[in-house]
Recover the amino acids of this structure.
């Protein structure tokens, strides 16, 4: 029963099967090589690498969220890191409240930055964020509600195409400016950092990072399967119809706005989850995460991997970020040009991305 | 208020029982004294037209005679300045909006075929199928045996059974037109409005289309707007000639072609 369900989800799609297989392999090998293989061995995976891989997978989840709306419904979001960052801030607030008296000022309630600003009490939206379940609810609720309000207004007014992309940029830019302000109560410029532990597990410990890596793998696999279910359902065929001929879809009786809205909200929530997993692994969240450039980078990952395939987006996110890690260390001044050049090259030469190229090669060889 | 907003957000809408036309007097469409003006230009001028249940009617007329405007009035796209439009005995078309009219059973095929190119022929028909189209229902929708049978039946009718798994985008022009007619049929309309179905078709495709339209009439009424007189001759039992927004002549194709007024309009100017 269970296998047949998963089989149905994958529906003769080889790439998806390979993708899930690689995730499973990573979930087994990475913890094993980190914890069981002694340091100094050639096979040992250092904790630094585990965290780096965890970060890539968070980006992969974000890329899948973007691919869901862009690749399947034609909504080019240039502001998805807004949802990512909101999820990250919700997690960051929880982590800040866990610090307690271990902060520099030792205040049991107020995070350090509030003491520094001479605040006497906790702002209302910080209440309850010391409870993990509530914080996790906010991880999906904050981006979800923002996406709902934004989508409600934009889709009902039938804003589409490049205009929609521009207002998503404006959205994330406005949030960045707002979060930079100290008065917002999110630590301003410095953001939230200096985290100590998560659910009682020390964030300085390697084993905690391995656990976070595993949590990210699971979230990515589940998020991928959920997206897969959506795009393989009749709902998925409707949103593709909306992408290809919106007015025609409306004409045969589909409420296009509702379809876009729910897809958009779901995608924003996925982005929020990715952000929440990202923050404890990286150890900081600040308004820089809202930067419009970041959202554009996500679109580049998806385009490089191949949009409209989901696993292609994940592949693109990992590859581009690996290149980024490498190039920013080896040739820091080249990175931005490489990113720009990559986008131009992919758009011109590989409109279907790497996945499209692989499919073409396979077709030619068979 | 909030409940309604949530309902609308969820795409539930307020759905009453779909109205079905009452054709007890054997007339499915009444257009009476319909007048439409655009900036003083009378596109329709006290037009009177009656379509019988099960009839196949051709509408011809020179450019600007009001053929498209008439279709727009029937489907709710244009509101007339005067007159009345009834679907059967009981449904007042002028009080309804486009989706409601479509749901009541009037399907319209536009001149330019628009099918969903990256979906297969089968999926196109599935998408067009009548039924609850709210997002939640559709997310978990499964094809019942009955619905599958319905799709296969329509595939058979439009002659695309062998193309069912092909991407609609790769079909020929004529096949796209048939697929679009098939998509209309999936909505199970009582009245089909077809705008220039054979424009740009090869002679063989034209012939196939004629057969298709003739086979559709009977169970449902079909109104065809067409310029191609040979095509009209091959399908029509009754032809209506529009001129300057009202009916100039009506009758069999031979009667109409020998009508002095019609000859003047088509050849005189």
């Amino acid at each position: 029963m269970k296998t047949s369900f998963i089989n149905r989800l994958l529906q003769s799609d080889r790439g998806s099967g390979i993708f899930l297989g690689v995730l499973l392999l990573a979930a087994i090998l990475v913890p094993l090589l980190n914890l069981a293989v002694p340091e100094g061995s050639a096979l040992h995976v250092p904790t630094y690498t585990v965290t780096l891989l965890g970060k890539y997978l968070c980006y992969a989840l974000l890329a899948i969220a973007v691919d869901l709306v862009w690749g399947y419904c034609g909504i080019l979001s240039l502001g998805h890191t807004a949802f990512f960052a909101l999820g990250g801030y919700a997690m960051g607030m929880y982590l800040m409240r866990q610090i307690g008296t271990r902060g520099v000022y030792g205040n049991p309630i107020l995070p350090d930055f509030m003491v520094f600003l001479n605040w006497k009490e906790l702002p209302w939206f910080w209440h309850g964020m010391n409870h993990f379940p509530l914080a996790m609810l906010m991880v999906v609720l904050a981006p979800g509600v923002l996406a709902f309000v934004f989508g409600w207004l934009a889709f009902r007014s039938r804003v589409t195409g490049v205009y929609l992309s521009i207002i998503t940029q404006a959205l994330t830019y406005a949030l960045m400016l707002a979060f930079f302000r100290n008065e917002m109560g999110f630590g301003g410029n410095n953001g939230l950092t200096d985290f100590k532990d998560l659910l009682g597990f020390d964030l300085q410990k390697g084993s905690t990072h391995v656990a976070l890596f595993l949590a990210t793998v699971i979230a990515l696999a589940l998020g991928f399967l959920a997206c897969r279910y959506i795009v393989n359902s009749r709902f998925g065929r409707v949103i593709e119809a909306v992408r290809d001929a919106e007015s025609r879809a409306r004409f045969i009786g589909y409420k296009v706005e509702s379809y876009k809205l729910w897809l958009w909200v779901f995608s924003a929530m996925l982005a929020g989850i990715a952000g929440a997993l990202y923050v404890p692994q990286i150890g900081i969240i600040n308004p820089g995460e809202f930067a419009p450039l970041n959202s554009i980078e996500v679109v580049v990952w998806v385009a490089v991997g191949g949009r409209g395939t989901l696993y292609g987006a994940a592949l693109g996110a990992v590859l581009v970020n690996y290149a980024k890690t490498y190039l920013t260390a080896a040739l820091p001044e080249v990175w931005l040009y490489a990113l720009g050049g990559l986008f131009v090259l992919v758009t011109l030469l590989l409109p279907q991305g790497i996945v499209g190229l692989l499919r073409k090669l396979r077709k030619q060889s068979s | 208020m909030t409940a309604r907003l949530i309902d609308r957000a969820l795409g539930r809408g307020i759905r009453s029982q779909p109205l079905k036309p009452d054709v007890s007097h054997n007339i499915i469409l009444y257009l009476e004294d319909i007048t439409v003006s655009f900036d003083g230009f009378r596109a329709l001028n006290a037009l009177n037209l009656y379509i019988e249940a099960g009839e196949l009617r051709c509408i011809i007329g020179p450019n600007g005679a009001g053929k498209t405007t008439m279709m727009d009035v029937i489907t709710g796209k244009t509101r007339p300045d005067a007159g009345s439009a009834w679907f059967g005995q009981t449904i007042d078309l002028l009080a309804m909006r486009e989706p409601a009219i479509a749901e009541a059973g009037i399907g319209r095929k536009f001149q330019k075929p628009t099918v969903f190119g990256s979906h297969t022929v089968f999926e196109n028909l599935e998408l067009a199928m009548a039924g609850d189209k709210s997002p939640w229902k559709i997310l978990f929708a499964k094809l019942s045996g009955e619905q599958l049978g319905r799709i296969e039946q329509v595939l058979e009718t439009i002659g695309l059974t062998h193309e069912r798994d092909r991407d609609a985008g790769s079909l020929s022009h004529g096949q796209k037109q048939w697929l679009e007619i098939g998509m209309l049929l999936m909505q199970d309309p009582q009245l089909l409005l077809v705008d220039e179905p054979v424009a740009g078709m090869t002679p063989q495709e034209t012939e196939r289309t004629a057969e298709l339209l003739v086979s559709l009439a009977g169970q449902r009424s079909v109104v065809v707007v067409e310029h191609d007189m040979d095509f009209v001759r091959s399908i029509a039992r009754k032809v209506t000639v529009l001129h300057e927004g009202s009916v100039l002549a009506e009758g069999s194709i031979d009667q109409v072609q020998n009508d002095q007024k019609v000859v003047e309009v088509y050849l005189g100017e």
